[in-house]
UniProtKB/TrEMBL annotation:
This is Glyoxylate reductase. Keywords: NAD, Oxidoreductase. The keyword NAD applies. The lineage of its organism: Bacteria, Pseudomonadati, Pseudomonadota, Gammaproteobacteria, Enterobacterales. It is an enzyme of class 1 (oxidoreductase).
Length: 314
């Protein structure tokens, strides 16, 4: 009998337990509660308490219930041993998130490209004021992060005839996309970008990457879309860049502190658009399909997808 434990502070545990049990009839799936020291082969978690996983060195795999693993990695840094040594950690690579990210970014990109944000302000001022449209050849879009989600977004933008470039830790080969990689190419990547989309993983190396130095490399009056993590953005630098005209407008889905405090200046800034961390949600059915496929791969001695490199943090 295979034993699987589940923990998530907000998800409906019954939906997940029933779904995994249906897909793996040979498994006994239970919600983990404090004091549960019964055997387990696999763990499905989000922000698990230290005592849930720390003693479970016999686990065959831990599955993070999201595309990012920064939260559990941060728990490990604060409380070493939260992740038992030698146990593989997997993240959700797509499971319906790519389509959601495409939808979100296309909505934001086209809003800026067609200057709908400015027309909305004109409407509030009762101004009938046609603007010169942006042109594709001068509206270069840069994507920070070229993993599964970044590649998906890049490919969709290429389909719409945008000039797209990507920046990542190592070079990527995406049809129609100019690839930049490594710290030495970050400035070259940023130079000439009219719109910047951040889809980087949250690691110590990427924290604060959206800062005044990077903003200064972009084309004047550039646009910013942050749908990765709040820790990537130096919030004060963005406010100053907006006020100085370096950044024309920003769409932000993630923040250093969530929910965003009511007194935060982003709420009232006329050139900042806010959404409450909804760019891509975990879709239970697709996620369960992915997790079960990976459990079967591990049981059969095959390499799972979404395997996290604990040194890199993604």
């Amino acid at each position: 009998m295979m034993n699987i434990i589940f923990y998530h502070p907000t998800f409906d545990s019954k939906q997940w337990i029933d779904g995994i049990s249906k897909r793996l009839p040979q498994a006994k799936v239970r919600t983990w509660t404090r004091g549960d020291d019964q055997p387990a082969d696999y763990a499905l978690v989000w922000q698990p308490p230290h005592e849930m996983l720390a003693p479970r060195t016999q686990l065959k795999g831990i599955f993070a219930l999201g595309a990012g693993v920064d939260a559990i990695m941060m728990q490990e840094q604060r409380n070493p041993g939260t992740l038992p040594a030698g146990v593989p950690l997997m993240r959700l690579e797509d499971t319906g998130m790519s389509l959601q990210m495409q939808e979100y970014t296309l909505a934001a990109v086209l809003r800026y490209f067609r200057r709908m944000d400015e027309y909305q302000l004109f409407q509030q001022q009762k101004q009938w004021r046609p603007l010169a449209p942006h042109e594709h050849q001068s509206f270069t879009i840069g994507i920070l992060g070229a993993g599964v989600l970044g590649q998906s977004v890049a490919e969709k933008l290429v389909e719409l005839n945008f000039h797209v470039r990507s920046w990542s830790r190592s070079p990527k080969n995406i049809a129609g996309v100019q690839s930049f990689a490594g710290d030495e190419q970050l400035d070259e990547f940023a130079s000439g970008c009219k719109l910047l989309i951040n889809l980087l993983p949250n690691t110590p190396q990427t924290a604060g990457i959206l800062n005044k130095n990077l903003f200064a490399k972009l084309r004047p009056q550039a646009y910013l879309i942050n749908i990765a993590r709040g820790m990537h953005l130096v919030e004060g630098d963005l406010l100053r860049a907006l006020d100085a005209g370096l950044i024309a407008a920003a769409t932000l889905d993630v923040f250093v502190e969530e929910p965003l405090p009511g007194m935060h200046p982003f709420w009232s800034h006329p050139r900042v658009s806010i959404t409450p961390h909804i760019a891509a949600n975990t879709l239970p059915e697709q996620a369960m399909d992915n997790i079960v496929a990976n459990i079967l791969a591990l049981e059969e001695g095959r390499t799972p997808t979404g395997l996290v490199d604990l040194q890199r943090g993604y």
